[in-house]
Write a structure and sequence with these properties.
This protein has about 180 residues and is mainly beta. The chain has 3 helices and 11 strands; from the N terminus they run ααβαββββββββββ. The chain is globular, with a radius of gyration of 19 Å.
Length: about 180
Amino acid sequence: MAPHSPPPADGASAAGHDAFHPDFTPGDADRNPGPLRARLHHVRAGSLDGGTAQSGGMQRFAAISGKTVGSERVWMGETHVAPDTASSDHHHGASETAIHVVAGHPEFVFLDDAGGAPEEVRIRTGPGDYVFVPPYVPHREENPSPDETAVVVIARSTQEAVVVNLPGLYVLGEPPA
């Protein structure tokens, strides 16, 4: 088998497809998952998939997932929270979640009982900050800005976005109220 020629300088392959392998076409993950594991994939910012798990008050967009590129142990994408908006309370099941703040000053809210009684904790963030959300921890994301959308990049330890919407926050290990 002859080696493939290098891609053009604009990042597209010689065949015009947006991946390392010139034979990549969208939808390959569903039809032929084997070869997807032998090539690099480039997901352009304008190609994120909004058809992923959602919570009220925010929009999630998948970039890297089992569906989009054939990943098996990681999901990555963006979340946008409109100005003066809060997401619904939720957790991400067994998934570990890493968050990188790109724009705005989102606040991450959860309950903690380290002081003996459940108390609301707010993590106030800004661009460049990181937040780690352990598995099953109920939380919500708020954007207190009256005019700026909060945008974060999210990486999860599961193939797809796991989102369990909740009626309210509770301390992990305690039954929901």
